[in-house]
Each structure stands twice: as C-alpha cells, then as structure tokens.
Amino acid sequence: MIIDRYKIREQNETLVLSTIIHNASISRAHISQLTGLNKASTSAIVKDLIDESLVIEIGTGDSTSVGGRRPIQLSLNKNAGFSLSIDLGYDYISSMLTNLNGEIIAEFKEKNFYVRKDNVIEKIKQTIRSYETYYLDCKFRLIGVTLAIHGIVDQEDIIFTPYYDLDQIDLAFELQQALDMPVYVENEANLTALAETSFSTNKLNLVSVSIHSGIGAGIIINGELYHGRNGHSGEVGHMILYPHGVACPCGNKGCLEQYCSEKAILQQYRLLKADDTRTLYDLAEDYDAGDKDVITFIEKAAHEISIGIRNIISGFAPGVVYINSPLTRKLPFLLTLINNCIRSKFSKEVPILTSEIGATASLLGAAVLNLQNFFNIPHLHFSEEPLEKLTPVL
C-alpha cells in the first residue's frame, strides 16, 4: 500500500503534538524516543509547530548522566487560543472558557433562564461576547463552541429534546452561519463521559450516568465515545420501568426518568410533604432526621436507579460507572443505597462512583470535543501522569 508522504508528515506532526500535550515539559530528544521518529524529523516538526504558535520553548532541562548540553524543554502554547463550552439546560444556561490545555479560565451560570428555540441563538451570541476580553488578542482566538444538549443528538442534528423545543431548529448550522467559527452539538451525558475519560481516569471502558431533568448515559468503549444508531445510545432514562406507568414525552409509559430523575424525585418529595418550596437539602435533612416516609421514598428511588445501572453494566461491561447528578452530591447517602441494591455478581465487580468532576463535567467534556477537533487528536488526557504509549507512523 502506498501512503502519500504528506499524509505521513501530517500524521507524524499530530503524533509529536500529542506527545507534547501529554507531557507538560519535554525535550526534542525525549519526543524522538517516545514516538520512534528520528531526531531530524522530530526537530523539523517541532520547528513547524513553533512557527504555528502551537508550541513554545520554556527553558532548559537537566543534563543527562553523561553530561553535555542541557536540553531545551518544550510545552504546548496553552494560551494561544481558547475553547468555549455551553450547557443548555431546560431552565438554565452555563458556560465555561478553557485554554488549549483544558484549564478553566472563566465560567458562569444563569439560573431560571428557560431555553427555547426563539431565544437560544441570541443568548449564545451574548454569552460568547461576554468572554471576548479573554480571547480577542490571542493567535487562534476562539477555536470552537460546543453545546451540551439534554436530548438525542446525531452528528450535529438535534433529534429529540423532551424538555425544550431545540429539536425544531438546526441549531449548529444557524450558529455556524452567524458566528463564522466551528460549532459542535453533542448530548450532555456523552460529554460527561468524555470529561471522565479525559480528566478522571485512564480506563478505556466506562459509563457516566447523568441524572438531571432526565437521565442519560455517556458510554466510552475502547477509548471511543459510543453513539449507537442515530445517536440513540445511552438513553437509559427511557428504559421502561413500569409498563403501565406515568406517560413520558418520548411517547412511552413508565420510563425510568419519570420516577428517579432529579426533577421527578423533587416533585414526588414535594408531593409527599405537600410543600412546593421543599429542596433537595430539605430532603437530606428529613432523611438524616429519620423521617420514615422519606426514607422509604428514597430507598425506592435508589432501587429504581440501580435497575437502570444494572442493565447498563450487563449490556456494556464497563470498568467503572460514574454518577453525575445533584442527587448524589446533595444526598450523599443515595450512592450507598444504590450500591446496596446492586446484587448480581457481575454488577458488584464494577465500581459505582460519584463523579469527582461534578457539575462542570458536561462543560469540560465540551472543551475536550473542541480541542480534539482543533488539534485533530482523537484522544486527549489531561492528567499529571504522562501518556507514553504512542504509535509512530512507519
């Protein structure tokens, strides 16, 4: 097979850039050693990356045991451009600006903003303008905007959104036309999974269960985000729990998220207490105080959530399951109850953990998606531990 030499050069440039990104400070000689590229090729590629403002020299390292010149150290030029992430919840909009190294520069959340097709584009434009002072004077300015959508997304198309009407417009296309910059649209739970695999763990197989107004799961298989047919993977909130149960906007009855999403649990708790002002903090206090009705209610919810998680584990055999939700953050006992409900041998072998990234997971995952597209690097891992298993192009 004949491979175009320019294609090889492009692949090797990506390999060198990936090595620099995954090592905070590294010399040309070490890059050559890790990638298997010869020193001349490595130096030529590094020169191009420096000329493109993607890489900078940051001083000298230690000399080797045999002495000689101290090597010049290289690093990603992390502030040469910025990424913007926007999470469109049904009643809020949150945003985050990160640099090219995935470090958070600024973030903001506006509560009680009800997202609709007729107000979302202007709100996104306004959000972008609010960050201009950070990125206007740098080389690459804003490298892209990724939108986290609470619904089914298939290759930038919003297919179904149960709690707002964004499935009625071509949001990515309209924004690209208006902004003249890359705009990506992805399912919110998928982005939380991308954040976990990029910031939390080296595991190549994981599931991130996102429990908010609905319930979704982002699935990573062999290091890749799994979308399934037409983007329908991970819609665990629409597993049917009770065939003749509560009607769901998806058209079925008895879907999981109608019983144990954050929204559903809060609604049921308020109904139980006949008080529409109750919060999750009140629920936690009632549980800790030994309120029998609340304890019974929460144990039932934990059992229902565990059914969804057991089904995920049986279907995908992940190395770990993360739960990303205000429920597990504000009701810390809930995770213990869920784990206690996981009884099967196969399920018990899989750790079920609360996400340490927390509420910013979808935004950090959106940043990863922006950076993957900008660098043309499919796997980015922002960790103190360098990734050294890289494959050279022969």
Automatic annotation (TrEMBL):
PROSITE patterns: ROK. One of its GO terms (biological process) is D-xylose metabolic process. The keyword Zinc does not apply. Pfam families: ROK. InterPro entries: ATPase_NBD, ROK, ROK_cs, WH-like_DNA-bd_sf, WH_DNA-bd_sf. Keywords: Carbohydrate metabolism, Xylose metabolism. Transcriptional repressor of xylose-utilizing enzymes. Belongs to the ROK (NagC/XylR) family. This is ROK family transcriptional regulator.
